[in-house]
Amino acid sequence: MALFKRNKKEDEKNVKEVKTESKTEEKETKSETKERKSIYRVVYDRENRVWLIKKDGAKRVIASFATKEEALKRVKELCESQNLKVIVHKKDGKFQKK
Fold it and tell me: How far apart are CA 19 and CA 14, in angstroms?
């Protein structure tokens, strides 16, 4: 019959290490979900009669253009430099391209 001595301090350290490891893993997974890539949108503003480039989640407009072609050229440049996606809307607000 073998007797095992348990050291409470070592057991507590092991438990703390496991808890801290699980907390860091949770933080990593949360940060990965928060790092969603933003999307540029090309939208028509009926009041001002201009095409706007907006970034999802932003309050301000990035740029405004008189024609849709100019807006598309600029948004392509932005997407290439930042490696982001674009969604283009029609004048009525429906999706044209993703």
Answer: 9
Give the model confidence (pLDDT) of 3-59 as tens digits: 656 666 666 666 556 555 555 555 555 544 445 678 999 999 999 999 999 999 889
> Count of domains in the chain?
2
Tell which residue, 85, 87, 90, 84, has the closest CA to residue 98: 87
Element (H, E) at 42: strand 39-45
Burial of 42 (0-12, 13-18, 19+ CB in 10 A): buried
State which residues form the domain around 20. Answer: 8-35
Q: Are residues 21 and 69 in the same domain?
A: no
Q: Do both 48 and 85 map to the same domain?
A: yes
> How far, in whole angstroms, is CA 56 from its chain's centroid?
9
The residue behind tokens 């009669």 is: 49
pTM for the structure as a whole: 0.59
Tell me whether residue 72 is in a domain.
Answer: yes
